[in-house]
Design goal:
heterotrimer; A mainly alpha (285); B mainly alpha (627); C mainly alpha (99); B: 627 residues; mainly alpha; two-stranded antiparallel ribbon; globular; C: 99 residues; Helix Hairpins; 3 helices; 0% strand; elongated
């Protein structure tokens, strides 16, 4: 890659157009994807593309740092917080503020046009290239600048980082100011509040399904919300155990019985035992 | 000797303090204490007078410096007294007549349960007036001036349970304040002009000062004098002041209060001499007032109010004389002194009549009283003869001199002023004769069943007798060898006026108009019976009964005008000032309400605004580059 | 190809990021958009560095990255705290500081 002279090579041009498209697509996905996780992943892709562009522009150190620090550390931090926080369903993209979307679109386009017009207006014909500056190695060159010309900025940035770390700890740290309620007190509070005195009901346990993401059924066959973890509920990851599914199962069993030529009458009670409620449920449906 | 001067003021002041702070313990002895201290002050004055007579004319003036009152930087006001011939005259008049009125009050106020307080106020009045005439600078004079105003307020409203008395006191106080403002402005002007307000330096410096400033000071002093001396246009309080006890009226009219204006103008003579315009104003005020008061006096049926009109008129004579300059100052003071005697006598006589007539003041319910109150009749009669200027009595000498001086003013002015003074003399003779006839002559117009006229006790008659003696002889005594004029000459200076009429002609004219006025009164009130109910009278009579519409004028011009002005100002305040303020506030409030919509609390709205701002900045930068 | 195209790309990415900040309500996504804008700026700095032939632009980009890292740490901590108390990560719900 000695193409760090003024003009870019054809190879770089091809690279730019392909990866540039990817970067813009990633950016658009970031702002348009419903789920925060998808946004984060799209952004990570855009950043990796940017890292490649840094490398192409002769900023080898920054390219690596971009991958390691940004994509590797910061984006993972984002994902971590998304998992911690943003698990509640998909973000609704419906706008609540009146005219906000039009304003945003208008301003965005206008601002973009202004920026691009500014760049086009500037005389940026001459590119010196980094051949000379990177002669002694990019990292050595940066190091020489950071520890001489920018040493104060460097030190202050270090202080800033420390402060940020401490600040984050202070913000997220919760000091417990009172004794945690004992089991007895908790149960007393529950009784006093008068809601759900016994333990929460267990999730649905069937012959075919034995998982925490399947709600237990109420006597009338409707699934009980209480039986599944609220986090799963929030994510919408509850498996659907509706009446139709049960009916399908019933039909399947019926067909296999007919195919096997068995009679329905002498159905062993053992086979019936898991579904005593099913006929009732069907009736109710 | 000069150390005694402070004693003059201190004696009545101590009396006032004792009587007003002493409480009920002094109720029984209070009137004696007050009278004793007034007499003591008179005794000190007499000693000082005797001492003064023993010196040559040049060094009769005494000074007493008590302490530096307000020393601030270059500004200095001293508590210092000056006793020269002019002050001496006033001091003798004030303490002498004042003492007599004190004695008289012992009898007059015998049945009043607040007598101790009354004597305290009387003493305070004397002290303030003495401070006024003894001060050696205008600021201290102002203190006395205000003290007199306060004391007059307290005394006029002494019977405060009567709403009319309370109102009269308030009126006197308010009208006096207008004059006081004049005096305070005059003092400020003096300070800016001369840098001091001690009499000596101020009066000595008038020669080197611009006439405009002196005129301004003079006019302000005249305004002050008008307030205290009840001259047009600030005359309206005097008639109402009759609501006070009769001794108070005598004190206000004869010895104190109204004479203060004359004193002020005479004392400031140097200023007026150097400001002919101000002097002219003084003369005009004097001439107008002397006719005004005389006309009012003719129409009043209330004996005290008739006398009040007479006072206004006589003070008008004095102001007129004082306005004539060095040819008149001495005569103004001389008339003031003689007037002090006979007007005090007349008022005390009127009080004596009222005392015997169950406090009836309407002369139409008197008549034929000469047989029932011989002493009062004789003393009142002598006062009457004195005031109309009967030849040989006090008033004749002093008033005659003023008329002569008025003619001596020279030119058309002289003739007009002299004519006015002569006319005033005729009217004086008319209304005083009317009072005399209606009170002491004619048939009885009172009900013998209800009223039992009787002579007053000795404490009342003796002062009247003394004053009557003064009324008869003072003028003659003063005129021997022009004694009074030469006595005052070192202070007021004196010039002989050159009248176009000879002295004899003036005197003859005076006597003629006197006889005409008195004869006219006799024709109207002596020959035929006086109706018990006042006839409707001519337009002038009715106007004069209403004090020539002075109150109506004040009401229409000042009160109504003030009300309208205030209303307009309030309206302007509400509509313009408040409107502007409230409008601004409302506009800002409305704007803020609109702007508040911007602050929705939604971070994204703020982000939009930020981006908009950034876009504007970028656009501006590009534009600047482009240009 | 003229490297100035990198600048156009940077401007485009920046604008997309800004639009995302305005449109999205999830605080975490808003944060990602801000990161996108920062990255766009970094790309511009790196391109400027190549244009001028010295490394100062890269240094600035480096500092931007450090500051962005600090900012992300604090910002995410704030988001976590808000979520803890309000059980939502929507920026519109935290709108109490209004009149």
């Amino acid at each position: 890659m000695n193409s760090l002279a003024a003009a870019a090579s054809t190879g770089e041009a091809v690279q730019f157009w392909i990866l540039g498209t990817v970067a813009v697509t990633g950016a658009l996905c970031t702002i348009l994807m419903k789920r925060a996780v998808h946004s984060a992943l799209s952004l990570a892709g855009t950043m990796i593309v940017l890292a490649v562009f840094y490398l192409a522009n002769g900023a080898y150190f920054l390219g690596v740092v971009q991958v390691v620090v940004y994509t590797g550390a910061i984006m993972m931090l984002f994902l971590f917080v998304v998992m911690l926080v943003g698990v509640t369903a998909a973000d609704s993209l419906k706008e609540t503020l009146k005219g906000q979307r039009w304003l945003a679109a208008g301003l965005g386009i206008g601002f973009g046009i202004l920026l691009i017009a500014g760049i086009g207006n500037a005389s940026l014909k001459e590119f010196n290239g980094l051949g000379e500056a990177n002669a002694g190695g990019n990292v050595q060159g940066l190091a020489a600048l950071i520890f001489t010309k920018y040493v104060f900025a460097f030190e202050i940035t270090g202080a800033l980082l420390i402060t940020a770390a401490v600040g984050a700890m202070v913000l997220t740290h919760r000091e417990r100011t009172e004794r945690p309620a004992s089991q007895r007190e908790q149960s007393q509070a529950r009784v006093r509040a008068g809601k759900q005195v016994p333990p929460l009901p267990a999730p649905g346990v069937y012959a075919r399904h034995n998982a925490v993401d399947i709600p237990g059924l109420l006597p009338d066959g409707s699934p009980s919300e209480l039986t599944v973890n609220p986090t799963l509920r929030g994510r919408g990851q509850i498996r659907d155990v509706s009446g139709e599914a049960l009916a399908e199962l019933k039909a399947l069993e019926q067909r296999s019985t007919e195919w096997l030529g068995r009679e329905t009458e002498p159905k062993p009670p053992a086979a019936q035992s898991p579904t005593p409620a099913e006929p009732k449920e069907e009736a109710s449906k | 000797m000069e150390n005694l001067i402070a004693l003059l003021v201190a004696a009545p002041l101590v009396g006032a303090a004792l009587l007003l702070c002493g409480g009920k313990r002094l109720d029984r002895a209070g009137h004696w204490i007050g009278t004793l201290l007034a007499v003591a002050s008179f005794a000190v004055a007499a000693v000082l007078f005797a001492d003064m007579l023993g010196k040559s004319a040049g060094d009769r003036a005494l000074h007493q410096h008590l302490f530096s009152w307000i020393p601030v930087g270059g500004f200095r006001a001293d508590l210092a007294f000056q006793l020269d011939q002019l002050s001496m005259t006033f001091v003798l008049l004030i303490t002498g007549v004042g003492s007599l009125i004190h004695i008289y009050s012992i009898g007059y106020m015998e049945h009043d349960e607040r007598r101790r307080r009354f004597f305290g106020y009387l003493n305070l009045f004397l002290a303030a007036m003495l401070l006024l005439v003894l001060a050696d600078n205008y600021l201290l004079l102002y203190v006395g001036w205000e003290g007199v105003g306060l004391a007059s307020y307290l005394l006029i409203g002494f019977w405060q349970h009567k709403p009319s008395a309370a109102t009269a006191a308030k009126k006197a106080f308010l009208v006096n304040r207008v004059g006081d403002v004049g005096l305070s402005i005059a003092i400020m002007l003096m300070f800016t002009t001369f840098g001091t307000f001690a009499f000596g330096p101020v009066l000595a410096a008038t020669g080197d000062t611009g006439e405009g400033k002196l005129t301004a000071i003079g006019l302000m002093l005249l305004l002050a004098a008008c307030g205290k001396s009840a001259q047009v246009p600030l005359q309206s309080w005097l008639g109402d002041a009759m609501e006070g006890p009769t001794p108070v009226s005598a004190l206000i009219h004869a010895a104190t209060m109204v004479t203060a204006g004359v004193y002020l103008i005479t004392r400031s003579g140097a200023i007026f001499n150097a400001a002919p315009d101000a002097q002219m104003a003084v003369v005009v005020v004097g001439a107008v007032t002397l006719l005004f008061g005389a006309i009012v006096g003719c129409a009043k049926d209330d004996i005290k109010k008739a006398l009040a009109g007479s006072t206004m008129s006589q003070i008008g004579y004095m102001i007129l004389a004082a306005g004539l300059g060095p040819i008149g100052y001495a005569f103004a003071i001389m008339h003031l002194v003689t007037h002090g005697f006979f007007k005090a006598g007349l008022f005390l006589g009127a009080g004596s009549v009222m005392h015997g007539m169950n406090d009836e003041v309407d002369m139409r319910r008197y008549g034929g009283l000469r047989r029932y109150m011989p002493v009062t009749f004789i003393t009142f009669g002598l006062g009457y003869l004195a005031i109309i200027g009967f030849p040989g009595l006090s008033g004749f000498f002093s008033k005659d001199k003023i008329i002569e001086a008025a003619f001596a003013k020279g030119g058309t002015e002289g003739w007009i002023l002299g004519g006015a003074a002569l006319l005033g003399a005729a009217i004086t003779a008319f209304y005083m004769t009317r009072v005399m006839l209606m009170t002491f002559f004619g048939e009885k117009r009172w009900d013998p069943q209800e009223v039992h006229p009787h002579e007053s006790p000795k404490t009342m008659t003796i002062p009247m007798i003394v004053l009557a003696v003064g009324s008869v002889f003072a003028g003659g005594l003063f005129s021997i060898n022009d004694a009074f004029v030469s006595w005052l000459e070192p202070v007021t200076s004196f010039e002989h006026g050159h009248s176009p009429l000879s002295a004899t002609a003036t005197t003859t004219a005076t006597i003629v108009v006197l006889l005409v006025g008195a004869g006219l009164a006799w024709l109207m009130y002596g020959r035929k019976p006086v109706p018990a109910v006042a006839p409707r009278g001519s337009l002038l009579t009715r106007a004069a009964r209403r004090d020539l519409l002075q109150d109506d004028f004040n009401h229409v011009v000042l009160v109504r005008g003030g009300e309208h002005l205030t209303r307009t100002l309030v309206y302007l305040d509400h509509s313009l000032v408040d409107g502007a303020v409230n409008g601004t506030a409302a506009t800002m409030g409305g704007l803020s309400g609109r702007l508040r919509q911007l602050q929705s609390g939604f971070v994204r709205s703020y982000a939009v605004q930020m981006l908009g701002g950034a876009a504007v900045l970028v656009a501006a930068t590009l534009l600047m580059r482009g240009v | 190809m003229n490297p100035v195209y990198y600048l156009y790309l940077a401007a485009l990415l920046f604008t997309i990021g800004a639009a995302g900040v305005l449109i999205r309500r999830n605080a975490i996504v808003v944060f990602m958009c801000i990161e996108l804008m920062l990255n766009a700026c970094n790309l511009a700095f790196v391109t400027f560095s190549r244009m001028h032939g010295n490394l100062d632009g890269q240094i600035i980009a480096f500092f931007t990255m450090v500051v962005a890292a600090a900012e992300v740490v604090v910002g995410l901590a704030i988001i976590v705290t808000i979520f803890r108390t309000r059980h939502t990560a929507s920026v519109d719900d935290a709108s109490l500081m209004k009149l």
